[in-house]
């Protein structure tokens, strides 16, 4: 594998429990990778393993061709920023930013200059003598970032650094961090369980599930071409229906079911065999029409028939809960359909994710 930061076949255990089960990941120099996954999937463990706080039982970690698997954290040229800012409460902003420089015995004039550079970079010039308790959450997180960057690390590791910030500040700091990372050309690995945060910040998203990598790719790839039912659901394709498919050549035939019409769609790159399948789609990726609309044809995609049971307006589009037998779907539409209305929902081929049902 080529790359700058390479994790190869890494297994990590806590006692008898294997938490990372064979992780292979290669990060390019200057790349921003987000580790995304639900609670307990092993994101933090992977980050801590990169940092050197956990040692893999099997597998290796290398940086720029150097094997660092058994090296202590302070020899790895990495800086870590946590969810809790972990700033020293009794120290000023300047002292906090300069903390790593002091540990490394950087000479006073050079340290002063570096602290000033960091403050300028992060817009903290006026706050150098304040204590952390006199700062807002966003400012504290910037100080934590300044402290991490002051030592000029090769790799920046971020563990949910934005989760303690309120929603609006989070959006700003999100963009500040990624702009800074790009400007400095620093390699970054960022842990988050927030899908949108990963989408807007990262060059590449690594989706983890149960200690393994479920899919890695650009934000567009994992969003538009999820490779499994798990990734599709995790990336927001939460509507799910069971169908029967018949795969022939470059086409997929969908058999008529209790709640769907017969249809034929392009196979695309779907890996499917004839039989039972699960179809998934996002609530906003469909067209809803009154039932029996003659303009809908079997070439338009998967056509589902149901009844509206609830309508609300979260903003922008109308949101409908639609019942199909025992299943219910969420469907967003620019047009409002009344409760009780019989409707058809057309899911066009590109928005339709289909996976074999075991
Ligand atoms: N020190 C530890 N000892 C034993 N088990 C641990 C330890 N730390 C974490 N675990 C377990 O390892 C698994 C992975 O934890 P990890 O913190 O890596 O998950 P995560 O994906 O970062 O989750 P979250 O988003 O909740 O932080 C979890 O089941 C957790 O309970």
TrEMBL record:
Organism encoding this protein: Rhizobium aquaticum
Question: Which keywords fit this entry according to its UniProt record?
Answer: ATP-binding, Nucleotide-binding, Transport
Q: What is this protein called?
A: ABC-type Fe3+/spermidine/putrescine transport system ATPase subunit
- Family membership: Belongs to the ABC transporter superfamily.
**ABC transporter domain spans which residues?**
5-235
Q: Name one Pfam family in it.
A: ABC_tran
């Amino acid at each position: 594998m080529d790359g700058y930061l390479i994790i190869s076949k890494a297994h990590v255990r806590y006692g008898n429990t294997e938490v990372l089960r064979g992780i292979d990941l290669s990060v390019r120099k200057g790349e921003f990778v987000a580790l995304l996954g639900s609670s307990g999937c092993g994101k933090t463990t992977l980050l801590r393993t990169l940092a050197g706080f956990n040692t893999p039982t099997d597998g290796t970690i290398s940086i720029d061709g150097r094997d660092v698997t058994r090296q202590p954290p302070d020899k790895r040229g990495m800086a870590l920023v946590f969810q809790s800012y972990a700033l020293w409460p009794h120290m000023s902003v300047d002292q906090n930013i300069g903390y790593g420089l002091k540990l490394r015995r950087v000479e006073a004039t050079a340290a002063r200059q570096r602290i000033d550079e960091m403050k300028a970079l992060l817009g903290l010039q006026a706050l150098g003598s304040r204590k952390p308790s006199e700062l807002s959450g966003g400012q504290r997180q910037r100080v934590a970032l300044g402290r991490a960057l002051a030592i000029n690390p090769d790799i920046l590791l971020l563990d949910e650094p934005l989760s303690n910030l309120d929603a609006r500040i989070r959006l700003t700091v999100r963009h500040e961090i990624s702009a800074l990372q790009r400007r400095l050309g620093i390699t970054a690995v960022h842990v988050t369980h927030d899908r949108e945060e990963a989408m807007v910040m990262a060059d590449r998203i690594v989706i983890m599930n149960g200690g393994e990598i479920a899919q890695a790719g650009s934000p567009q790839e994992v969003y538009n071409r999820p490779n499994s039912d798990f990734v599709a659901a995790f990336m927001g394709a939460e509507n799910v229906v069971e169908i029967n498919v018949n795969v022939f050549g470059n086409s997929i035939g969908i058999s008529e079911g209790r709640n769907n019409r017969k249809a034929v769609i392009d196979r695309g790159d779907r890996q499917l065999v004839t039989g039972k399948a699960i179809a998934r789609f996002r609530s906003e990726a469909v067209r809803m029409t009154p039932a029996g609309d003659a303009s809908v044809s079997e070439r338009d995609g998967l056509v589902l028939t149901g009844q509206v049971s609830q309508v609300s307006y979260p903003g922008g589009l109308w949101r409908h809960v639609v019942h199909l037998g025992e299943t219910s779907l969420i469907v967003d539409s620019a047009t409002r359909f009344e409760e009780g209305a019989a409707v058809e929902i057309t899911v066009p081929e590109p928005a339709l994710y289909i996976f074999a049902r075991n």
